[in-house]
Amino acid sequence: MDQFVLNWIFIGASFVLYIGIAVWARAGSTSEFYAAGRGVHPVVNGMATGADWMSAASFISMAGLIAFTGYDNSTFLMGWTGGYVLLALMLAPYLRKFGKFTVSEFIGDRFYSPTARLVAVICLIVASITYVIGQMTGVGVAFGRFLEVDNTTGLLIGAAVVFAYAVFGGMKGVTYTQVAQYVVLITAYTIPAIFISMQLTGNPIPALGLFGDHVASGEPLLAKLDAVVAELGFNEYTTHHADTLNMVLFTLSLMIGTAGLPHVIMRFFTVPTVASARWSAGWALVFIALLYLTAPAVGAMARLNISELMWPGGTDGEPVSTEMMEADEKYAWMATWQKTGLLGWEDKNGDGKIAYFNDKDADKVAEMEAAGWGAENELTNFNRDILVLANPEIANLPSWVIALVAAGGLAAALSTAAGLLLAISSAVSHDLLKGQLTPNMSEANELLSARLAMAGAIAVATYLGLNPPGFAAQTVALAFGLAAASIFPALMMGIFSKRINNKGAVAGMLVGLVVTLVYIFLHKGWFFIPGTNSFTDADPLLLTIKSTSFGAVGAMLNFATAYVVSNATEEPPAEIVELVESVRVPRGAGAAAADH
Amino acid sequence: MSDKPENNAYWATNIKIVTWCLVIWALVSFGFGILLRPLLSGIAVGGSDLGFWFAQQGSILVFLGIIFFYAWRMNKLDAEHGVDEQ
């Protein structure tokens, strides 16, 4: 069967499944719309959190970023899993005990201030919108390739599907849809990885294959990879090259940001008890770890496969010839991806060969010139975001695997986008409208405005997704920085300190958000408009701190500001101290109240 | 409630458990994975070293251990101090 038709069948079938579940589990009441009536088992909740959490950034983008950088990008792996420890130990059980629906409700009540709630809503919306832009980048890449349509059309189709089930389903629909999406996503990620691990190392478990032996050479896989990339003038895969300060801050930003993102925290409002909130975080990380332990293997093995495809006779042989690329089936994926504009090559010196090497390395350039392959790298463009999607084709796997990966990549991007839209819509309708502007709004009107907010958010995100500030995972990392700098410190201090007051929390959140946002805009362009930036991440404003790593600094500023301001002003009232004490003990956690 | 000594003891124990868990959390990721990697470079693991393994896989496995330990320990602590959900 034709690959194109097969892609459509797999993607179409998975969509029918998701939309069917969304319709079946349609939300009737406000409580069901936001928190699924709290009837969700920790394992189910963990699986849904996994799908919600693992977005285009994890599925489509991350392994590609690891593949081309190696050890230095381990930061993504540690950062995006380590945050669950913070979530499980410092937030989830207490927020569940508090027993309301949204993150900003907690901040508003704990800091006894509508202003604090409003500031929290703004922080949530800024971080969530930035996050959705990253998802839309991934959706565009996936649809562009698999439906063979252009980026814009792909984005519009994806937006329509997310809208359909997020708007009509609410949290309950989204929860069960996301369980289905998790299954599709993890199958699609691991099956090609298993095939490739078998081919290269003979080990069916990719996570073990990564540290196993390369069958063809008999050497350890990582030693072989280090040697091959070094031969081509690139940094050795497993060694440390990046700036250490930036690595630490970046990892910390991703960790803190994970524990500050509204759509993940909201998940812990949907479990029945405080005890199960603790287990839920663990189950979520189990399901996430299945992908995260596989991702570094996918990256390393793809890098080796690509290097060997470009140098079929080994790195001391000849580069691949343009004739071979046209004639040999193994190279067919390159021509298909070339059409998307995300992969490119050019025979610059006209020798009929495409030489792939690091042309920033002077010794390697001299060596390549002496060998007659020219002074320039001729694999001119390899977008990191295509690696996972192209991976089954690179390894020459059966066409049903390719179609499965297409469905998986879309499941990842769409599930997260839906969860984020739900968080944005509840921030607008529940916190902003009902909480502040029109407190007497009826339940029906609240539900309607939640759906309208979702439609508005998806329109903005789709528009911004057409012109993203980086690869999917990098844009998403910016969103984490914003959440880290604004939301997490306020939540944590709200639980672990009785001294932080309304003024301290508001000042802390504002300083964290504004300073981080300005730092990002200075490096990525104001409102992400290209060309309006004064600095670049290669030569950043402060020390070696890139804009993607600044969230950790923003969080520290938030903590410091809140501490200083709170201590300079009056203590919180007695009933707030009591609220903090009641949040700290599980006894008495009931069902949440929709009103307050 | 602040007058109830058992709640204060409960919270103090919780803070101690959280602190130790976070020490391990930081040690395996920022420590073994990044800053202390040079100290572990002599220990070979499948073509690379122990620090590389911690950065790519080991830290994730330890994170899982920490969260499940904490859930188990806290649910036990709740019962010991009589503050569990009934």
TrEMBL record, chain A:
Q: InterPro entries from the entry? A: Na/Glc_symporter_sf, Na/solute_symporter, Na/solute_symporter_CS, Na/solute_symporter_VC_2705, Sodium:Solute_Symporter
Q: Does the keyword RNA-binding apply?
A: no
Would you identify the family this protein belongs to, as annotated? Belongs to the sodium:solute symporter (SSF) (TC 2.A.21) family.
Does Transport count among this protein's keywords? yes
Membrane protein topology class = Multi-pass membrane protein
Record's subcellular location = Membrane
Q: Which GO terms describe its cellular component?
A: plasma membrane
GO BP annotations of the record are: carboxylic acid transport; sodium ion transport
* Alphabetically ordered keywords of this record: Cell membrane, Ion transport, Membrane, Sodium, Sodium transport, Symport, Transmembrane, Transmembrane helix, Transport
Segments passing through the bilayer? 6-25, 77-95, 116-133, 153-170, 182-200, 247-269, 281-302, 400-428, 448-466, 472-492, 504-522, 542-565
The molecular function GO annotations come to: symporter activity
Name of the protein: Cation/acetate symporter
UniProtKB/TrEMBL annotation, chain B:
Q: Which InterPro entries match?
A: Na_symporter_ssu
Q: What is the species of this protein?
A: Aliiruegeria haliotis
Span of domain Sodium symporter small subunit = 8-84
Q: Where are the transmembrane segments?
A: 20-40, 52-72
What this protein is called in its record is Putative solute:sodium symporter small subunit
Q: Which NCBIfam families match?
A: Na_symport_sm
Please report a single Pfam family linked to this protein: DUF4212
UniProt keywords (A-Z) are: Membrane, Transmembrane, Transmembrane helix
